Amino acid sequence: MNAWRPLAAAAAVLCLSVTPSAAAPQFVSISVVDLPRAQDQWGFAPATRRIQPGTWVTWSNAGQDAHTITAVDGSFDSGDLYPSEGFSWFFAEPGTFAYDCALHPWMTGTIVVGSGVSPTPTPGADSTATTDPSDTPDTTDQESRSAG
Ligand SMILES: [Cu+2]
Questions:
Q1: Alpha carbon of 100 to ligand 1 centroid (Å)
Q2: Shortest CA distance to 99 belongs to which of 78, 129, 125?
């Protein structure tokens, strides 16, 4: 009947291993894809990327044609980005930033900068919260003996 206890211990370790977001910048990458897709399927992967404020986003042209990373509001513009070239932009403030490729306007993407990503557990996401309150640290003896 104690079989669930190791699982609870493992879950506790997993919870502790979640690192709180620090002030250090984050880095994410997005690929620009074209061939061998049909031209109307060219685009950005992922097309929508949700990030935290204080994140560097790097677009890499993984295709075989030139593209641009051009903000719809004009806040950033990579200029022509040739195959294997990259472009990075730092997103400091929350907001939604739509962009496209000036050469192929059907290539569109969105960066969603939100503060919603935090160590705060999402309600319902942690199914181990129903831990028996009678749980006591009575495994110390077992652990010390298992070293043999
Ligand atoms: Cu393009």
A1: 8
A2: 78
Give distance in angstroms: CA of 55 to centre of ligand 1.
Answer: 24
Nearest CA-CA partner of 53 in 5, 115, 109: 115
Domain ranges, residue 55: 23-117
Q: What is the pTM of this model?
A: 0.63
| pLDDT tens digits for range 51-110 | 999 999 999 999 999 999 999 999 999 999 999 999 999 999 999 999 999 999 999 999
Query: What is the CATH classification number for the domain harbouring 100?
Result: 2.60.40.420
The reported pLDDT for the residue numbered 21 is 52
Rounded to the nearest angstrom, the distance between the alpha carbon of 109 and the centre of ligand 1 is 12
Q: Are 46 and 17 in contact (CB under 8 A)?
A: no
Total structural domains within the chain: 1
Please give the distance, rounded to the nearest whole angstrom, from the Cα atom of residue 65 to the centre of ligand 1. Answer: 7
Whether residue 97 is contained in a domain is answered as: yes
**DSSP letter assigned to residue 39:** G
Measured in Å, residue 25 CA sits from the centre of ligand 1 at 28
Would 1 be classed as within a structural domain? no
Distance (angstroms) between ligand 1 centre and the Cα of 101 equals 5
Is 143 part of any domain?
no
